[in-house]
Structures are given as structure tokens and as C-alpha cells.
Amino acid sequence: MPLFAKNLLALPPRTKGVLAVTAVAILAIVFFMLKLATAPSYSLLSSGLDPAQTGKITAALDSQGIAYELRNNGTALAVNKAQVPQARIALASQGVSVNESGSQPGYELLDQTKLGTSQFQQQVTYQRALEGELARTINGVEGVSGASVQLVLPEDTLFASEQSPATASVMMQNTADTLQPGAIRGIAQLTASSVKGLKSGNVTITDGSGQLLWPQGDGSAGATAGATKQATEASFSRQLESKVNAMLASTLGPGKAQVQVSADMNVDKTNLKQLTYGKTGVPTKSTSDVEKLRGSGATTGGTAGTGSNVPTYSNGSGSGSGNSNYDHTVKTTEQAVNKEIKTTDVAPGAINKLSVALLVDKSVPAATLNSLKQTVAAAAGIQPSRGDTIVASQMAFAKPATPKTGPVPTTLLGPLKWVGLGIAALLFVFFMARGLRKREAESLGTPAWLKQIEEPISLAQLEQSTVAMAPSGLPPRVPDASLHQLDQLMEREPERVAAQVRQWMAAD
Length: 508
Description:
The chain is of the alpha+beta class.
């Protein structure tokens, strides 16, 4: 028997119990840590599944040996994070389609049509499929997330006057300031062009806050009044702040300066007409009118009045004769003046006024503040003639709070598990070896029964309950109860008794 096993068996029952409990606890910890380390990490692949499709999905995953987990009463599917691509390929190869988390199913609904389906059910299925395809297309627009589409398709009627128009509603989870200019108009036109008989004016688009984006305005950035004007100003201010703050952080370092921008923008779309006349004209038409008068001479009877009636005045008057020849020409020239009419559509988004606040930490030298103010004014596009203002202040910034220790990253969880397992094993071996060394170093006292044995005697004589007679004619001795204990000790621990005897012999 090995020495380790002999020493372990020689320990007291209490020590053996403690060691047994410790070993079981360590084994339980090791088992738990191994199970935790080897447990697969699941990633949500799809939600909102049809329970009728769950069996096909699980069968396709089982055929490829992919670990999966059903959640939310079978309506959500999670697979091993390391096997997500294989799961998608396996489902696609089996003809099973799962929609992304939170999106609407598309034309794959038409593949699930059963024999005997009524016309009403087919129409509803087609409408659901069309809504899903539109939602997927709109989600592909930059800045759009979580779009859902609802359609109202009219029923065919005999009379066109009784036909109700088709309508559509688009709900987006994002806000309007995340969209590019003109994106809302594009979404409305895309939706209207995808549904028969749907006009863009019958499309309603709202964002995650419930704000109406269409048909109010033309869909360009800042084209609507009220909240859209505020959203446009907020988006412009954030972009300008991020640009200037990035410049300050790269120059002064993080946490040294901060910029806040408040923009007043004109979001009204206007039409400007301009009329311009030339300085000189160009002759385009010339006309002339000639007036002529011809006649022969005649005797005149004097002029009318008192001169010819009074005798004294009539002496000077006489008669005359002659021919008349009168010519008069009138010329008319029309002048054409250059005229220019210019029509301009002024796009919305012009800046009426810009206000910039610059806050600098006390650690920045005061001599740098003036040059920093000028730099920020140039970067922000401050124009004093437009009424723009910039205010710079310097004060002590609050010290950032020490971040609390967050959760352990999942990438380090695996190595930490194995490190903890190794430390636990080393501690177990250390304390076991230490306990055994202490037991080996203990010195055993001389038993009283060994002092009572003066010469070798047989075991049969020790077991006798009567008075034993010693050889060589010695007087009888009364048997001691310790002899029985000696017999039991020798049977139970012969090696220990032999070691003690060898120690006494070496001492002599």
C-alpha cells in the first residue's frame, strides 16, 4: 500500500470527514465551472415565428446538428452564437425562411398557401406579403430602422364612382433627424409606386415619436413647419458641434473644451422671380408719314373784321395772288429694350442666425483662449454681418467620476473560468500536502503498555483472562487491560507500531 494511502488511513475520523467534505465541495465547484465554461452561448436568430413553422425549423437545425433554443413559447429561436451562419444556410437549404427580429414576413407567405384557401384568405395573405416586402425595402434606406407598413387595399366594384382609394401608413422607429434630405419624399414615392392605385398623397409616414412626416411638406430636410423645423435645427447643430468638438479634442485633449451651437434656420421653400431691363434699346421697326399740300392763287377781299369795314382802315389792304406747295414728313421708330426674367427656387435650410458658446477649462492658458475663439468662429462659419455671435468662457471643469466596475466582458469569461479552476486545484493540493506533512512530523509518545512488557511473550498468554505465569519461574502477574488494546492496535496499525519500535531501537 502506498505511503500516501497509509497516512490517509491513519488520520483521525474527524480529519477524514473534513477532507471528504472538502473534496466533495471542490468536485462540485469544478463540475459547476466546467459546465459553465462549456455551456453554449445562444444568439437570437428570429422572433415572432409562426408556431406552425417551428417544427420545420427545428427539424432543419437537427439535421445539421446545430444547437438551438426555443423562447417565448416557441415564437422565438436562438441558436449557438458560433453557428449562426451555419443555421441560416441550413434553413435556406431546406426552404425554410425566418424573418429578422421584429420585421414583417414577405412573399414567403405565398409559399404557404394551402389547398382549399378561400379568396378572402388569399387576398389577406397577398396584402401581408406586400406589406412585409415594402417594410424590408424601406428598412434598407439609410437612417431608417424598424419600419412597418400597413396597407388598405380597396375591393373591386362595378362602378368607378364607388371605388375607394388605396391608402398606406409607414411607421419608423427612428426619428426624422436621422434621415437624409429628401428621404421621406423618396419613401412616399417608393410606397406609392409599389401598390396599384396608390397615390403618394395617400401615404402617411410617422417617426418613432409619432411626428407626422408625410404628407406634410415635400419630405426634404426642414421642409415642414413646427417640430420639423426644430428637428432640422437640432440635426444641424449636432453635426456642427461634433465637428468642432472633435477639433478641440484633438488639439487640447479630451475634457478640455466644449462647444454648444444654437442655429436659427429658414426651412421655408420660396420661389424668387427677378426682372432685369437692358440699358440701351435696339431699333426693330421704323415708319414714315409724308404730308403734302398743293394749290393756285386767288383775289382776297380783305380780312374779316372792322379793318375792312371802316373806310379809313381799308386803304392799306389790297389783293394778292400765288401758288401753295407744302410738304411734311413724320418718321416713327420703335425701340426694343432688353428684358430678362429669372425664376429661382430657393431651397430650404438657409441659416438666419448662428449662436456658438465655447467653454474652456481653467487648465488651458488664458493666452490661448483668444486664438481658440477665432479658430472656433472660423470653423463654425460665424458671420457677424448676419448677426451671428460667439461667446467664450473659461472655468474649472468638474472632474469625471470614476466609472464603476462593470460586468466582466464575455470574451474574458472563458479564460477566467479555467484560471479559477486551476487556482482551486492548486489550493486543494497545497492544503492536502500540508496536512499530511503535519501528521508525519508528529512524534508519538511512549505507550504505557510497552513499559509493562519486560520480555517477549506470546499473544496467547496476553489474551488469557486468568493470571498469566511468566516463564523462568517469575511470580504471577495480574493481566492488564492495556494488553488487549495493544493487540487491537497491532492488528489495526501494524506499520505504526513497527515504526515506533524501530525508533526506540535507533535511540538505544
